Amino acid sequence: MILNEFFLMAPPPPPAPAQPDAAPQTKRPLSPHLSIYKPQLTSGMSIFHKITGVGMAGGIVVLVIWLACLSMGKETYDQLLALLKSPVGLILLFGWTWAFFYHLCCGIRHLLWAAGWSLSIKAVYISGYIALAISTILTLGLWYIILDIGGKLWR
Amino acid sequence: MALMRSSLGRARGLGASGEGTSHWFGQQIAAIALIPLSLYVLTTFMLQVVLGNGYESARVWLENPINGIAMILMLSVGIIHGANGMISGLIEDYVHHRVLHLLGLLAIKFTAAVTLMIGVLAVLKIMLGA
Question: Is B89 in the A-facing interface, judged by CB distances under 8 Å?
Answer without folding.
Answer: yes
